[in-house]
Every structure is written in C-alpha cells, then in structure tokens.
C-alpha cells in the first residue's frame, strides 16, 4: 500500500483527524485538496454567505501554503453551492479577491441541496512547484 503524503494546515490537524479525512494529499506532482468550507477553528460555520466564502478561501490558502503553493498553482476548481440561483452573485463578487489574474484555472460549479450547514465549498487540484536542485 502506498503511503499518502498528507498536507495539514497549521492548527487544524485535530479537526481533520476528528472527521477522518485528509485536507490535502500530494501525488505525482499534484496537490489534491479536499473541499474547503468557511469553517471556524472549531469546525462551525462562519455566519453570513460572503464571510463564509472568504473564510473558505482563507482555509484553502492555508493548505496551499502548507504545501508550498499559492492559488496561482491551482489548475482545476470545483465549487459546490447551496441554492446557486440565489447565492451565485454574492459568491462571485468575492472570487476576484482570491482568484488572481488570467489565465484562470478550469472551473466546474455544482448546485447542491446540503453542505452540512454550509452554503459554499471549494475543492481544487494544484500543480506542486518543481523542486529546484540545491
């Protein structure tokens, strides 16, 4: 069995262990990041959709940073949105603050009915920076 190369952001390992999943796994030059929501350190939802989206991106960026990446390394994004017809505009006004400049990653948006008390989740795949010879 292959040992998973797991990436944990600072200060949240206990939350992931409690919920029995890895925040991100390195494999074959890529970083596969679990869906991130706007959860506070105790795992509870941040109130308000815009604040929840911002915190989801902050939680995502903490994982990317722990792996030596930034959002510029992201090649694929999947968004999960509760009630996208009502929530899309609020979400999309926050995205430019985190998305960076073109060329942008690929994107799939999925409307869902439930996200464990959250309204927004973002899941990404990033290309890991290549190691430089020392």
What does this structure look like?
The chain has one domain (5-127): RutC-like (60s Ribosomal Protein L30, Chain: A, 2-Layer Sandwich), CATH 3.30.1330.40. β2 (24-27) and β3 (30-36) form a beta hairpin. Strands 1-2-3-6-4-5 form a six-stranded mixed beta sheet, with helices on one face. The mean pLDDT is 92. α2 packs across α3. The N and C termini lie far apart (31 Å). The protein has 134 residues and is of the alpha+beta class. The chain is 30% helix and 28% strand. The protein contains four helices and six strands; from the N terminus they run βαββαβααββ. The protein has helices at residues 13-19, 49-66, 84-94, 96-99, and strands spanning 5-7, 24-27, 30-36, 74-82, 106-112, 120-127.
Brief rundown of the structure:
With 134 residues, the chain is α+β, with helices and mostly antiparallel strands. It has helices at residues 13-19, 49-66, 84-94, 96-99, and strands at 5-7, 24-27, 30-36, 74-82, 106-112, 120-127.
